[in-house]
Fold:
Amino acid sequence: MALRNRTKSKLTASVADLDKARLQDRYRGVDFTHIDECPLRVPVRIGGEVQGIRVVPRAGSPSLEVTLADGTGRAVAVFLGRRTLPGVAPGRSLVIEGVGRAENGRTVLLNPAYTILPG
Structure:
């Protein structure tokens, strides 16, 4: 009976729900703070899958914005004065370390240290 219920829930779940569950399973047990629990204005270590990359102007110079998701939420790592980061592409896993802040309703980390995870 339990198998039937699990199969039914997988078939009726939305794509967004399935993606959140996939990301939560992927990062379970890794030593970092979940994005939805990320405290502001203190050093944090968060990780997730790169969902998007874009170059935007900030104070007259280019800045690279990398959006990460871990299944619990999203955060944006902003690399000031950069247009690219070698090895960083959508679908890659990253761990970033820095100080989070709220900006336009999203969690932003400016110039964080980053590590590209294998796989």
Summary: The chain has one domain: 2-117. The chain is about 20% helix and 45% strand.
